[in-house]
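step=encode ok
step=design start
structure_in=
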């Protein structure tokens, strides 16, 4: 949070320079061309080498197809597909899942096209060649894109580079909300550097709790001057009630001369991109917000993923589960497993299974330790150095090994691999209508709460992240959360 605050404080003291578009986006996109090319060449080259033993191939067998030519052709088509699908567009690179989705679609379209051409013209391209090039290419492209993102995030957090400076046009409350939302992530691309506040009251700044003060530069009539004064790269308009359709159009023309992007913030929060559809009606750009999808094909896909993933973890983890159970039994009195009643889908209770990490009867000690509760909001019960935790239990919690038996709950349909945190019954009693929406999906072994701080999160942040997942869940988000969980577990973030 300190780094974010410093960025906002420094922004107000930077000397005005002529506004210009952020050049880091173009440099970043050009670097992606190079890394994509390397990934594609490594994929087709490795497939060529592993399947046929080099460029010349195995000359002991007569092949009609010249595979070096095929490899070059696929590489060219692959790079073209990545460009045609705008996988390096400055609008989507560096954040979110859309970039990965476009890479995935471009790759599948190339190999699908190659397969169709092979069938139609009876080219008989070796399936082993394609089965090596496709997964290896996807993996290398994903890793290279992820590595590029990490470089940008480090540049933002440590050096304040690769930032898009934003001027906000809107009421003080809208400026605060937008600044807070953008500032939650220290690696965010956007940085609010100033504001134009419509209305008769003139102010010099807008105070944003936790982020400092945002300087103001008059009202909506001074946007162009404010852009120049703050060296902004984009303008985010939230005051659409003061700037009507014609006003926004005129503003876009003025900003076009300065090569400044215009963003219109509709005030909709915690809604993921796939649920937002732009629908032009009678010359008006209407944003259609799709309803959350909890049924049908998506639910079937999620269940299939849960069963396959849980079965694989339990099978592969069996050599670890048995020694852990023996260690728990030998080091403290009580059962190996701890069974706790939790509230699941639609408010139905179930018995969650974990390895026991506390002394037997720890639940009865909660009242005596209530004064030491460190959870913000008071709904959860968390103590950083809980005296009830056994020595072996502390080690199991550090690496989240105690949660492995929960995969049995997944197979029993009580839980899911990814979902909201499984709440206790006494926690659910305190839920308002807002928090109760967490119960629309099955609770998860991991989730956004797990990869965003775990026990270090406040109650409000925990609810916000759970609701974001409930409102926007998809298979791609589940896969990304599962991958991020590995990093969170080995980083011991929020584990106690």
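sequence_out=
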């Amino acid at each position: 949070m300190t780094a974010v605050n410093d960025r906002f404080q420094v922004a107000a003291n930077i000397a005005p320079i002529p506004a210009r578009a952020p050049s880091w986006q173009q440099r970043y996109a050009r670097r992606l061309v190079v890394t994509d090319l390397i990934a594609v060449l490594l994929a087709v080259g490795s497939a060529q080498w592993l399947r046929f033993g080099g460029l010349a191939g195995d000359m002991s067998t007569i092949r009609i197809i010249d595979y070096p030519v095929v490899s070059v052709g696929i590489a060219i088509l692959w790079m073209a597909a990545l460009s045609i699908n705008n996988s390096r567009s400055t609008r989507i690179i560096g954040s979110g899942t859309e970039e990965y989705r476009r890479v995935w679609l471009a790759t599948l379209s190339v190999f699908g096209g190659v397969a169709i051409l092979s069938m139609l013209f009876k080219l008989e391209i070796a399936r082993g060649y394609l089965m090596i090039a496709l997964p290896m290419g996807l993996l290398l492209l994903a890793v290279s894109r992820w590595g590029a993102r990490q470089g940008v995030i480090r540049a933002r957090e440590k050096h304040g580079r690769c930032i898009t400076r934003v001027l906000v046009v809107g009421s003080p409350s809208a400026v605060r909300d937008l600044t807070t939302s953008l500032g939650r992530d220290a690696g965010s691309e956007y940085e609010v550097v100033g504001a134009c506040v419509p209305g008769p009251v003139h102010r010099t700044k807008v105070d944003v709790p936790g982020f400092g003060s945002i300087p103001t530069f008059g009202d909506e009539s001074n946007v162009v001057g404010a852009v120049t004064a703050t060296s902004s790269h984009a303008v985010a308009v939230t005051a659409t009630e003061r700037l009507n359709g014609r006003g926004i159009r005129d503003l876009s023309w003025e900003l076009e001369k300065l090569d400044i992007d215009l963003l219109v913030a509709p005030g909709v929060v915690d809604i993921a991109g796939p649920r937002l559809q732009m629908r032009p009606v009678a010359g008006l750009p209407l944003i259609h917000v799709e309803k959350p999808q909890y049924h049908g094909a998506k639910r079937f896909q999620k269940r299939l993923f849960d069963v396959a993933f849980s079965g694989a973890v339990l099978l592969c983890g069996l050599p670890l589960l048995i020694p852990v159970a023996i260690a728990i039994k030998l080091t403290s009195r009580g059962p190996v497993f701890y069974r706790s009643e939790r509230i699941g889908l639609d408010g139905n209770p179930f018995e969650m299974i974990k390895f026991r990490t506390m002394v037997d009867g720890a639940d009865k000690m909660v009242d005596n330790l209530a004064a030491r509760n460190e959870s913000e909001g008071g709904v959860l019960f968390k103590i950083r150095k809980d005296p009830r935790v056994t020595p072996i239990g502390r080690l199991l919690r550090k690496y989240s090994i105690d949660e492995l038996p929960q995969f049995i709950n997944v197979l029993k349909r009580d839980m899911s691999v990814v979902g909201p945190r499984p709440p206790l019954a006494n926690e659910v009693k305190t839920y308002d209508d807002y928090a109760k929406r967490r119960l629309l999906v099955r609770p998860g072994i991991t989730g956004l709460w797990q990869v965003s701080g775990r026990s270090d999160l406040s109650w409000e942040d925990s609810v916000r992240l759970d609701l974001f997942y409930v409102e926007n869940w998809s298979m791609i988000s589940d896969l990304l959360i599962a991958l991020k969980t590995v990093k969170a577990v080995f980083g011991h973030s929020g584990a106690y």
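step=design ok
step=annotate ok -> The chain has a mean pLDDT of 80.
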